[in-house]
Amino acid sequence: MSGTISDNEIISRLQKLSISHPEVIEHAPVKGGAEWKAELDKVGHGSVALTKTLLFKPKTAKTAAPTPVLVIALESTETPSSILGNHLNLKELRLASEDLIKEVIPSAQSKDDVSSLALPSIPSTLHVCLDSALASSSEAYGVHLTSSSKTVLLKGTDLKSYLESLTSGGNVQVVDFAALKAAAPAPSAPASASKPNAAPAAAARTPAAKKDEDLYEMAIQYKKEEDFPGWYADVLIKGQMLDYYDVSGCYILRPGSYTVWQYIQSWFDEEIKKLGVQDCYFPMFVSKAKLEKEKDHIEGFAPEVAWVTRAGSSELEEHIAIRPTSETVMYPYYAKWIQSHRDLPLRLNQWNSVVRWEFKNPQPFLRTREFLWQEGHTAFLTRQEAADEVMEILDLYAKVYTDLLAVPVIPGKKSEKEKFAGADYTTTVEGFIPTTGRGIQGGTSHHLGQNFSRMFDIVVENPDRSVTENDGKIHVYQNSWGLSTRTLGVMVMVHGDDQGLVLPPRVALQQVVIVPVGLSKTEGKNGEIYDACSKLEKTLIAGGIRAKADLREGYTPGWKFNDWEMRGVPLRLELGPRDIAANSALAVRRVDNHKAPMPLDGIAETVKAYLEDVHERMYEKAKAKYDSCLKTLNNWEDVVPTLDAKNVLVLPWCEEEACEDMIKEKSASQANKGVAEDAKAPSAGAKSLCIPFDQERFGPFPDGKDQKCIQCGKPAKSWTMFGRNGVLSAWFKSVRV
Amino acid sequence: MSGTISDNEIISRLQKLSISHPEVIEHAPVKGGAEWKAELDKVGHGSVALTKTLLFKPKTAKTAAPTPVLVIALESTETPSSILGNHLNLKELRLASEDLIKEVIPSAQSKDDVSSLALPSIPSTLHVCLDSALASSSEAYGVHLTSSSKTVLLKGTDLKSYLESLTSGGNVQVVDFAALKAAAPAPSAPASASKPNAAPAAAARTPAAKKDEDLYEMAIQYKKEEDFPGWYADVLIKGQMLDYYDVSGCYILRPGSYTVWQYIQSWFDEEIKKLGVQDCYFPMFVSKAKLEKEKDHIEGFAPEVAWVTRAGSSELEEHIAIRPTSETVMYPYYAKWIQSHRDLPLRLNQWNSVVRWEFKNPQPFLRTREFLWQEGHTAFLTRQEAADEVMEILDLYAKVYTDLLAVPVIPGKKSEKEKFAGADYTTTVEGFIPTTGRGIQGGTSHHLGQNFSRMFDIVVENPDRSVTENDGKIHVYQNSWGLSTRTLGVMVMVHGDDQGLVLPPRVALQQVVIVPVGLSKTEGKNGEIYDACSKLEKTLIAGGIRAKADLREGYTPGWKFNDWEMRGVPLRLELGPRDIAANSALAVRRVDNHKAPMPLDGIAETVKAYLEDVHERMYEKAKAKYDSCLKTLNNWEDVVPTLDAKNVLVLPWCEEEACEDMIKEKSASQANKGVAEDAKAPSAGAKSLCIPFDQERFGPFPDGKDQKCIQCGKPAKSWTMFGRNGVLSAWFKSVRV
């Protein structure tokens, strides 16, 4: 095998072969498909279909020269090494060592850089296996150049020509992996007519197969603690919550995530209706005139507004915006509908999507160009009624997190600096992502006072005619409050682990999966097990539990375990001959992998209680973590080290904005200075997250009169939470830049 | 009073006063605000705020000269003539006769043309009362010129200057109607502290007040049978189902309509989930490349696609479409997600909104630029499974109409000509609007065969490996099915009457309204009645009934009856001293105004049964009407007269397209010829609506072998429904052009 190939050499090889391709895309180095996808997404190529290139080493005599196998396949093609080994008559294929990689592809710095384009040549000792689905496709796919930070788009057929041009003793084998896989499992038993799926081939493998090399590519590729953004993207995709989309910043919400949103919707909607709120739907379009009517309000949104300027082939006379939020859409109608105090309160809510065309890096659920939310907009005769509602709604938001998503939050008030522009005050439920030590705003309920009613002239006669102030007129008191699909991102980040998603049972698409185990290779022997699984599924569904029996043929129990673990199903019930004999199932709890038999008698009731217990365990676990990271400090010296240790600070603060700014500035600069040796240290300063309503939990204050503001030393007014924020973005920055 | 004023004279008067105004808007003549709004909406000015101009005549001695009162007010201002009369010291104001109108404003042809702009002058005998809300406003409002077919936009302050320029002995009085109204009711009793709303002023009026002149402007202005489009717009606005919006073709769905949609959503979603369908959400944006990938499919939508070309101040490099439907959005991902027959069936549904930028006249619910719907997209291994689902879904659509909306529909198959482009076949539930005699498609469920899976390459290995056909691959079988907010339009058109909406109880926002009656003028005497109403409200709500006690002060019972009738509340319970003494309430059924006492003991259960009975009555009434308009014909001569009598035809048909075309052509031309004397006769030909699945109800056919196609005389294959369609558009055309 010959010398190192450069990117330029690859390009000139392509030119020689007259293979046209778009420009080379540069991005941050990536590990694996999910991260690659995420990086391409950032630079506007999120929809590119990807390839994967894997180098395997078969078992050979130690003295023999290695005969490595290079597999180039669609990212979505399963390429089990055992089956490929059988096909090539090679034993025990294992992923190649870095040494072997450098031998085959000298330009590669690590396994992430393995790319077939950088092969110097294809000698007879190298097996090159090209996925037939890729070889025959005239679609363009992403392939790396010499490193994982550059991507070129090539048609499958062109890639094939390219590889064939490199043969020098060896050759390029086109392999139909799907066919190999279908043909592979030894027991060729045709399924019985009455129960076609009853005897899955290869199902005899034991759970141990889970750690098989076949699962290597399928499992989550990142450790949550080591590469949080990579892990996050990987669990979302492999856990089937979402998929990338070919409009940057937009994602497909698959049933795994959308259903969680529906449970949130359904619960919250019922609760607000009990309060007297009604749902409505305003158009997604806003005229330029309406949008720009309130200059101050729109200023913040203007750079992100998407404009429709054309319909069919007609240019529109007036450009039309897609709503970024609905204040200026709705309030002119409030002015019309509210003619008298008898029309109050007016309490409307919308479930819709809004569009904010952000140009920063998109992040699934946290920063997307279109997102789903609810927005409540209400109007009252008195400030007190409005203020009461603010808290009622905030309480519901807290319950969405604690009671549905098993995520702890702390309700409080935003500082003047951090409140919603246009609000008298903003209340919030603050969440926490332990992995990054960052706070995250979970949902906000604003009291708008009369700020918008004055702008939009929403006014009624004072029913108390003795009042002559303001000509006897009252501008109504308004609130607005919103909760978005960001909730789903928080849920994933708080609960997920290295095996994948961990879903809280009350909102999980599937609450229970039933997997048949201990299957016999002998045809027709497994009917009883399959029947027992189906029966159990029916029993649980009849009991109101979202259960599914996974009777897919051709997958080992281990493969299935892994699959459902990635998807975060709270409870797995394994059912095999011994379980059936013992009239029980083996219950495996996702959150802690706890295993115990569960009697089949009365199982629906048992499972219900079990799932409630799972919810409690998940909540308690997350709450214990949050609580342990809430650090009450009184000395400034402790601030930066405590932040660096991924904590949220609870500081005595005078509530002056100058102090708030100073805390941010000082904690940022000291962070940079103090821990310069750790390149990954987040350098952002701490900003105020909220002033918790429950002050008492943090000790005898504000009664303790001697308590001083940690920054200025003047009397403190409250315990206030401070922390670094930007859950993913700051982290992205810290690990990538 | 002097001579006739022309439009040109008005314009030149404005110029003399240096009053600037945009161009005059021309439109069809209108009667009242709803129709005016609708006409302005058609020409892109739907958001214009309107004025109203009313001429009243007070009671004077017959021999005395009349002293008419001209009121110019915001459309939304209530201008009760009794209160105005008190204010002006004039007796019994009544709307003026046409003779008096022509005397005051000689250019006016009818009361619809009354406009203050066309006043020759303001003599001392004319009282001109200008709404203070209008007089002080610098917003622009719509005002007519000399006729109701022309609108000019004037600022309120400019209108005031204009009128003041016309004074010639008389003057312009600015009147604060809201203040008058608030001050008017005689009993000045201040509300008691403990129960501020307990003794509403003016509440002593009897139900007879309902027919008072005060209600004149508030009630529905059109007869359903006389002016269907005017009636439709009026009931939607006054029934508070929707409001106009300042982007043409878009409407605000107020709680009255959106909640109906939510009940449909909630019921249908639960049903499809039982079938195994899952919900998801795809982005609203589609890249140009994806949208245009399938040329044939997009061809029909292309002229109506809305394009986003700009975000903030940046021009987008690639223009992005807003989905008009989601086939090309979703199916590329189906190709990715479906890798094996084990991934089948894939059954996804979306609740979303789609945008079709139509340039035809918009019609609320029936033709809007953005509309809400669900779109189901499913994929199966076999044609049979897909075909079974088509019918399961169609059955659910039928139940949405019959079981939720109390609207009869007929399930059937569309002809080849009328099926969805790209489908193997289309099934439909066909509704009927008796007032226009038109059929309306209620919801469609399509079997797409392999048409899209071939385009998008959605393919799996055949699990039966003995099959070698097509290389052992199977393109999946697909369905798509959709139901939109059009359902709401059909519901309104079928059930509404001259008093307003009539809502089917299972989906009504409010099922029961409780109105206190027989109130005493004496302070503090009505507490018992109000308490009884509140208690009854609580009892019903606790029983799961959507009940509301209308305790608004300052409105007569009659006013409230009218208000809730317009909104279509199925059941009104009146509660007064006599009712309380008899331990009962007076139950008034909206659908037929039937009245009977209802005992208060066990009333929640009684009301539940009562509402179920209301549903049945509404359904039976609508079904009897539909059935009576389904005319089985065998002779061609009967076709046109039967169509003209607002029927749907059931014809024996050979199922050949040529015959279908001929039926349409012949029925159109004969209609035009035959009934030329009636200018309102709809002239469209009859097209095929559907081939009902239940053929037997129409008699011994297709067994009767002698049955011949009504058009060609060859053997007929089925009874097929034919009718004119275009529920509102054709009707609009026929009455307006």
Automatic annotation (TrEMBL), chains A, B:
Reactions performed catalytically: tRNA(Pro) + L-proline + ATP = L-prolyl-tRNA(Pro) + AMP + diphosphate
EC number: 6.1.1.15
Domain of life: Eukaryota
GO molecular function: aminoacyl-tRNA deacylase activity; ATP binding; proline-tRNA ligase activity
Stored HAMAP family: Pro_tRNA_synth_type3 (MF_01571)
Family: Belongs to the class-II aminoacyl-tRNA synthetase family.
Protein name according to UniProt: proline--tRNA ligase
